[in-house]
Description:
Elements: H1 2-17, H2 20-40, H3 44-67, H4 73-101
Amino acid sequence: VFVPIMVGILFFLFEFFSDRLLAFMVLSVVWMCEVFSVMSVRTATAIRFYPKITFVYFSMFYTYFFSFPFGFGYLALITLVLFLLHLMVHFLNNYEIPALMQRRVRIDRPRMMRL
């Protein structure tokens, strides 16, 4: 089930971006952000703000890419990746690691959520 879905997404992105390498790289970046979100985002602040800021960064990339069809698509993607890496490191250093050190996030309470 997973493989046909991924192949379908790739074919859609191939048509959407009209550049196979760029489409695959965009899918890889989205996947990287999703893996970070699932594995590392555990504090309430990060759960609230990380998806919103990621959405803003991706929206800026898509706005640039489709506003300037003969622009620097790969450079825009590299810029997006660097901004996202900065965002990940920021949330990891400022929210996740202190929560782990203060034992606010632990095995019996993996996410800081109110029940």
